[in-house]
Amino acid sequence: MADEPIFTDRFKDLRRRSAEAETGGGPERREREHKAGKLTARERVALLLDEGTFEELDKFVTHRWLR
After folding, report:
1. Global pTM?
2. pLDDT of residue 6
3. Do residues 60 and 17 lie in contact, with contact meaning Cβ atoms separated by under 8 Å?
4. Cα 33 → chain centroid
5. Sign of dihedral through CA atoms 51, 55, 20, 23?
6. 49, exposed or middle or buried, with CB in 10 Å at 0-12, 13-18, 19+?
7. By the 8 A CB rule, do 55 and 61 touch?
8. Which of 58, 27, 60, 22 is nearest to 41 (CA)?
């Protein structure tokens, strides 16, 4: 199939973006949250729900924060 490399690249990009989204603001932000005695949103969800029962929607949505 001629389009196979294009799909492969797209899947690689989606996997990369998914991993990036799961970092929750990056390691510095997670460390800051933990030092403050807090859990990240994903950690809180994991504690509240049974494994495999939560499906995250809009994982790739980004928000602009204006001061």
Report:
1. 0.62
2. 78
3. yes
4. 16
5. negative
6. exposed
7. no
8. 22
- Structure-token pair, residue 58: 């809009």
Exposure string of 24-37, with b = 16+ CB inside 10 Å and e = fewer, is: eeeeeebeebeeee
Q: Phi-psi region for residue 28, left (φ > 0), alpha (ψ -120 to 50) or beta? A: alpha
pLDDT digits (tens, 9 = 90+) for 32-65: 999 999 998 889 999 999 988 988 888 888 777 7
Q: Which residue has the tokens 């030092």?
A: 35
Q: Give CA–CA dist 10/6, Å, rounded.
A: 6
